[in-house]
Amino acid sequence: MNSEYLLLAQSAEIPPDSEGSQRPTGQPQVVQGGDAQEELPSGSPVIGDGTTQEEAGGTPADETHLLQESLSLPETGPTAPAVPLPAFLGGMLAALLVGAAAGRLLFRRKPPAPAVRLPARGITEYAALHETGARDEQQDAFCVTGQSSSGVLAAVADGMGGLVNSGAVSQALTAALEDGFAPDPDTSPSRQLLLAFQQAQAKVEESLRGSAAQSGSTLVACLVQNGGLSWLNVGDSRICLWRNGGLIQLNQEHNFHHDLTLLALQGDMELEEADRDPRRESLTSYIGRGFPRSVEWNPEPVRLLPGDQILLMSDGVYRTLAREEIEECLSKNTAREAAQAMNDLIQKRAVPHQDNYTAVVLKIG
To answer: 6-22 burial, b if ≥16 CB within 10 A, otherwise e?
Structure first.
């Protein structure tokens, strides 16, 4: 059985000549550092065993100055002229009313808590798990490219089994994303991701032109920039956010089970019947010949917090491991340990006809 295993950690950019999209088969291996580490800004704090962490964009909040208004009344004393009693009582009542108004004014002017501008959170390390499983060939592909200071793009693509040469499609997708990505601070993250996808889709269409065979691949991609997460999805690969021990799936799977569930909600069938339908895992949208039926993305970035982890994975991972098992793996100290734990569990499970499985773990500092 040919297997592939690659753990990439402590680097913020895969060099252009690295094999982020198509990894050679062979024994499990660990790749660290290399030329990619030279792309990290110098002078950044070093954590752990040499991983560089950059705290970008953080500035202290501006000082808040409180301006209080005071009301002064005419002084009274021995030289003050006599005031008739009715006028005096009226004056006292007016003073009380003015004093009450001043009290309300000062109370309402109690300053709000000063605004705190949090530093932009970026990727401090990442790891990738990439194995053939029990299949004869690897149809998954992935890439991680960019620099933490300007933006990091990651993607996982899963070639569709049963079609012809789908592994080439997944590899072409991730290679096109890796080669064509250039962070643009003047363009919104979601638009950058959409443009990158558009270019990759066009390159795949060009590569398939003239071929009568049907090929296809899923794609899930994300861009981490300025402390936010933007993502895009076609097919049934998943992107999840791990926060405080819990795993949150961000995207919707484009498979027939979704359509069957809609039929059940309309009363045309039972929900249990939709869950048992053998067609439920068939894809309804994928990248291949023609534009995908469905493309999903988030218009506004998800704000990231320190300690968050982003997980992109093919169905070979989440159909083998339970959610609770994945959460436990991600609770490890490093992205490298999380990827290793997932690999150990999948191999221990020894599922017959185990599908290719790929996962990219991005850790936020």
So the answer is: bbbbbbbbbeeebebbb
Q: List the alpha helices (DSSP H) in the chain.
A: 85-108, 166-180, 189-208, 256-265, 271-276, 315-318, 323-330, 335-349
Higher-scoring residue by pLDDT: 194, 82: 194
pTM: 0.68
- How far apart are the C-alpha atoms of 6 and 336, rounded to whole Å? 10
What values do phi and psi take at 126, rounded to 5? -150, 160
One-letter amino acid at 246 equals: G
Q: Determine the longest span between alpha carbons in the chain, in angstroms.
A: 109
Separation CA 293–CA 202 (nearest Å):
15
DSSP type of residue 169: H
Please tell me the predicted confidence (pLDDT) of residue 1: 39
Question: What tokens does 158 get?
Answer: 């899963």
- Residue that wins the pLDDT comparison between 178 and 104: 178
In the CATH scheme, what architecture does the domain 6-54+118-251+286-364 have? 4-Layer Sandwich (3.60)
Type of residue at 120: A
Q: Give the Cα separation of 25 and 21 in Å (integer).
A: 13
Strand partners, 146: 152
Per-residue pLDDT tens over the stretch 67-125: 332 223 333 344 444 444 445 445 554 554 445 444 443 334 334 334 434 445 789 99
Residue 357: what are its φ and ψ, rounded to 5°?
-140, 135
Token pair for residue 127? 């790891």
Question: What backbone phi and psi angles, to 5 degrees, belong to 262?
Answer: -65, -40
Domain boundaries, the chain: 6-54+118-251+286-364
Residues pairing with 7 in the sheet: 30
- Among 199, 137, 210, 194, residue whose Cα is nearest residue 172: 199
- In this structure, of 96-105, 227-236, 328-337, the range with the lowest mean pLDDT score is 96-105
Task: Give the closest residue to 173 by CA, choosing from 232, 226, 252.
Answer: 232
